[in-house]
């Protein structure tokens, strides 16, 4: 890869240090299987976060130093297959096929082995040096599920290591296996499908072998039979006859099975996954004659209830907003009062320069601190707790139907909630949406959410001088406006919106280390953005004041402020302040 893709949380020196590693490995797997926890265990604090080059998909990479070796670790996006052509799937597929990592570690959930093996089988079609980390073994055992890891390795033909990543168990063995795999770089064996499928794959292999294509030949043949749009377009430009042959073979399969070829291929993969899972899983009978409901089942009776579920969502989101509007505001006042007292009693520097430094730069620093510590940091902390406990996915599912009216889905509630704290990290978090249209819609609606700066104005002016009920009415009107404008934007903005595909993990007690690392990873990306903007912006405004440009600026903006909006001319400069700090 050329560069880390717009990294926001590391210095160029850190990025270079990671890229100078001897080996590169990639972690791949479904969402919510513990892949990110495994990544954190392997890399510790040596991590950088950014975007994939030219993509809005988040990218995390880190450095693993083990037995004198420096290993670059790439955390690929959590996906379920290579068949829906989302941005995350294309990023994962192209990285493995085109960048040729020294090893790919497929992290899977032990308690949902068959479903996870469906993606493992597709990874094997790409033929990278592959191994499997069977994570959350402890949760599987609590459900009475025992997996014969040795037998699983034999059936797949790749190394398999059991882990409990959240507790650090099995990480040492996993690291040894990674190093061994990276040094040997073996090609995984081919898992065969049904006879009618294999016969048609074999017919495509010889002509494809004559082409110069970076993807494995068998993988290309399968994708052509599945009528993968991107692969069909690529091969048609090189050999149109091969595409025509593949289309004819796909039609033959559809005629035999009476189903679309993509459905047939999915069934073939699930058949292989089911056969392997059946041979390696042993279900232990419960001691009691009656099957007890798990804690997850009992909690979901409330969390996913058609009435109580929405009440729980309301209470949780309400709690986050109470923190933003009440607790966070109080902490912000205390911090601001303390920092405002830090000023030289007998300043060495006086005059305009002192104003630029203290009223400008230092004021901008105070604004950054009073934003991050009382609002952003606690919000991200609570968000990480909900995410790691498994409840955040329930909120997304409960709100999914309503979000579809705006062309979004349940996951959009995360940036929308975050917007009440600060619009900047909320816009960053829109990267969790799948399609470009949904990313744009979510970011657009986030800008309509009243952040803490606007809340200061609403509560401090409207609430104090008019009525608190008028202030609350403004919030109600804002929600109605978001719904109306969002619906219009959904109809106008081109592109497609995809549905919600999320794993529903079991509930568990959040890991303190995981929560802290996720909170810091998200917060530091904001710090790199906020503090320079606040400090430089506030200082620049003071420079305007020192050189006497404020009055001319007000005069220039008078046609807008005075004649159009009917406001006093002095309001013009507040628009300039508002670019940097809305609460000013």
Could you provide a short overview of the structure?
The protein has helices spanning 12-19, 35-43, 87-99, 113-126, 137-142, 149-156, 171-184, 195-209, 217-225, 229-238, 240-257, 261-280, 295-303, 308-340, 352-389, 391-398, 400-404, 413-419, 423-428, 436-446, 452-465, 468-492, 512-546, 550-564, 571-580, and strands at residues 23-29, 47-51, 58-66, 69-75, 103-109, 130-135, 145-147, 160-162, 281-283. By secondary structure, it is of the alpha/beta class. Among the domains are: 12-184, 3-Layer(aba) Sandwich (Rossmann fold); 195-283, Helix Hairpins.
Architecture overview:
With 584 residues, the protein is an alpha/beta fold. It has 25 helices and 9 strands. The protein has a 7-stranded mixed sheet, with helices on both faces. Helix 4 (113-126) links the parallel strand 5 and strand 6 (130-135). Helix 4 packs across helix 12 (261-280), helix 10 packs across helix 11 (240-257) and helix 13 (295-303) crosses helix 14. It starts with 11 loop residues before the first helix and ends with a helix.
């Amino acid at each position: 890869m050329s560069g880390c893709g717009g990294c926001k949380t590391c210095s160029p020196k850190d990025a270079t240090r990671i890229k100078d590693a001897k080996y590169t490995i990639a972690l791949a797997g479904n969402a919510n299987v513990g892949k990110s926890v495994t990544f954190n265990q392997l890399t510790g604090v040596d991590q950088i976060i950014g975007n994939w080059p030219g993509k809005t998909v988040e990218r995390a990479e880190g450095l693993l130093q083990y037995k004198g070796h420096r290993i670059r670790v790439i955390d690929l996006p959590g996906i379920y297959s290579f068949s829906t052509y989302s941005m995350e799937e294309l990023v994962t597929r192209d990285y493995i096929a085109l960048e040729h990592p020294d090893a790919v570690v497929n992290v899977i959930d032990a308690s949902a082995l068959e479903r996870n093996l469906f993606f493992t089988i597709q990874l094997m079609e790409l033929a990278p040096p592959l191994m499997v980390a069977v994570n959350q073994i402890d949760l599987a055992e609590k459900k009475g599920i025992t997996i014969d890891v040795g037998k699983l390795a034999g059936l797949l033909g790749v190394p398999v290591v059991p882990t409990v990543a959240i507790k650090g168990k099995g990480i040492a063995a996993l690291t040894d296996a990674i190093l061994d795999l990276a040094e040997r770089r073996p090609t995984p064996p081919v898992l065969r499908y049904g006879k009618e499928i294999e016969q048609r794959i074999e017919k495509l292999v010889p002509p494809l072998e004559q082409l110069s294509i970076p993807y494995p030949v068998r993988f290309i043949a399968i994708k052509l039979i599945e009528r993968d749009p991107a692969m069909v377009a690529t091969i048609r430009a090189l050999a149109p006859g091969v595409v025509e042959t593949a289309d004819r073979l796909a039609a033959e399969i559809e005629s035999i099975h009476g189903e679309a070829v993509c459905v047939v291929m999915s069934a073939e993969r699930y058949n292989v996954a089911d056969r392997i899972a059946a041979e390696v899983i042993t279900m232990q009978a419960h001691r009691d004659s009656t099957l007890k409901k798990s804690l997850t089942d009992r909690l979901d009776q409330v969390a996913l209830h058609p009435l109580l579920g929405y009440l729980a969502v309301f209470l949780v989101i309400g709690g986050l907003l109470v923190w933003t509007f009440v607790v966070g505001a109080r902490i912000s006042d205390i911090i601001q009062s303390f920092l405002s007292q830090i000023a030289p009693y007998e300043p060495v520097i006086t005059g305009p320069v002192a104003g630029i430094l203290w009223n400008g730069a230092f004021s901008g620093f105070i604004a950054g601190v009073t934003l991050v510590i009382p609002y952003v940091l606690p919000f991200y902390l609570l968000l990480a707790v909900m995410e790691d406990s498994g409840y955040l996915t329930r909120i997304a599912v409960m709100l999914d139907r309503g979000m579809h009216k705006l062309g979004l889905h349940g996951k959009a509630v995360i940036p929308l909630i975050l917007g009440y704290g600060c619009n900047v990290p909320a816009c960053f978090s829109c990267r969790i949406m799948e399609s470009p249209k949904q990313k744009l819609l979510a970011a657009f609606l986030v800008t309509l959410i009243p952040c803490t700066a606007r809340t200061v104005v609403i509560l401090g002016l409207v609430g104090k001088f008019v009525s608190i009920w008028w202030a609350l009415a403004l919030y109600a009107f804002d929600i109605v406006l978001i719904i109306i404008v969002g619906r219009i934007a959904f109809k106008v903005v081109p592109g497609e919106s995809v549905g919600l595909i999320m794993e529903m993990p079991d509930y568990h007690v959040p890991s303190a280390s995981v929560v802290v690392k996720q909170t810091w990873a998200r917060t530091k990306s904001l710090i790199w953005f906020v503090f320079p903007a606040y400090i430089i912006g506030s200082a620049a405004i003071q420079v305007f004041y020192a050189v006497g440009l404020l009055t001319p600026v007000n005069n220039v903006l008078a046609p807008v402020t005075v004649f159009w909006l009917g406001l006093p001319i002095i309001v013009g400069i507040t628009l300039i302040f508002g670019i940097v700090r809305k609460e000013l």
